[in-house]
Amino acid sequence: ERCRLVIERPLKRDNERAGGETSVLDVQALEEFFRANDIKMNHVNTVYREIFKRGRTAFWETPDIGRKTQDLLKENFVLTTSKVVEVAEAEDGSGAKLIIELKDGHRVETVIINHTHKARKRSTVCVSSQVGCAMGCTFCATGTMGLQANLTAGEIIEQVWHARQYCTPRNVVFMGMGEPMDNYEEVLVSLRGLTQQNQFNVCMDRITVSTVGVVNRIQQLADDCPEVSLALSLHSSNQALRTQIIPSGGRFTVDKLQAAIDYYIERTGRQVMLEYTLMGGLNDLPIFAKELCEFIQTRKVFVNLIPYNPTEIGALHGYMVPKDDDCIVFEDILNDFGIKTKIRWKFTGCTMRQRWCTSMW
Ligand code: SF4
Fold first, then answer.
1. Atom 8 (ligand 1): residue with closest C-alpha?
2. Helix H or strand E segment including 42
3. Consecutive 10-residue runs of the chain (361 residues): their mean pLDDT?
4. Rounded to the nearest 10 degrees, how much is the dihedral formed by the CA atoms of 175, 178, 183, 188?
5. Inter-residue contact 154 to 26 (CB < 8 Å)
């Protein structure tokens, strides 16, 4: 079943950045504008062909769309509303982190992970969906900021545009700043721009939306877009321990998570990636591995075991790097139960958030 990405319901543009300049990369905004101004809809494709195939950054100069449309485009759209203000590239070529400033001055991070060094054809782009985050995960610096703003679909798409100057995006993962399910509609609209053939042309099943478990949105995503991949940051299937690590876990109880996963799997036929950060002496004990087996049972999931990557905020909570042997014991218990796993020894994902970019292989 194809994704229902053309959501005709009006977007809730209730954040301050929705006003002012609009990016021409926001396909829904461009279509709405063309419709309102009686401009032929096939000119949308013409404009994107000029930008993406011919590299025309002065997009309003697109030929064959008429002088009036050219003028309207120039008056009402910009290529990007955001700009890259800092780039930190890994010396070994394995990736880069972009700091992107939005038009209101807020800054978000976009991370590029290159799969094969030097060959830039297989890169994963990890995008942010919010400035700050309301979830307050105890190992995450973004969680200490609280929610400051939701990104618009255009601002999400622009991150991939900026990343495109450094790589060829093959996968896109919503694992940067913010909880994408809390900015659901803008995320959904951004999926459309990212997968448009005449734009970024990323395959839908190479896009992963990662959540700490907003259960109603997991179910809605399965309905709206069954082709997109889902990653769930679980970190513990023990209710008390999970709530300690992820305070919002109190709302999204493990029972509800199980029901949401079941719905997703049944509706989409896809497996769910479970992300489990192993913290020394905390959630890496065999008893919690057995509890995780009980949680998973025969569900169609794949478990990424991510040895804790030390962070300043995690240190405040006393989180420790697990011993290698304990990680292996934990994995063995899951494997003996028939659960597919992989330990991500070399953590190259979004380090602040202890998430592994699940579309990397
Ligand atoms: Fe928010 Fe993700 Fe950080 Fe949790 S890990 S606080 S969901 S950004």
1. 178
2. helix 42-48
3. 53 52 89 93 95 94 95 95 93 88 92 71 90 90 88 94 93 94 92 90 94 96 95 96 89 95 97 96 98 98 93 89 97 98 73 48 32
4. -20
5. yes
| Atom in ligand 1 nearest the alpha carbon of residue 143 | 6
Name the 3-class secondary structure at 229. strand
R_g of the chain, CA atoms, integer Å: 21
pTM (2 d.p.): 0.91
> How deeply is 63 buried, as exposed, middle or buried, from its count of CB atoms within 10 A (0-12, 13-18, 19+)?
exposed
Q: Which amino acid is at 289?
A: A
Q: Phi, psi at residue 277, to the nearest 5°? A: -80, 125
The stretches of 89-199 forming alpha helices (DSSP H) are 153-163, 184-195
SS (H, E, C) 139-160: CCCHHHHEEEEECCHHHHHHHH
Residue minimizing CA distance to atom 6 of ligand 1: 143
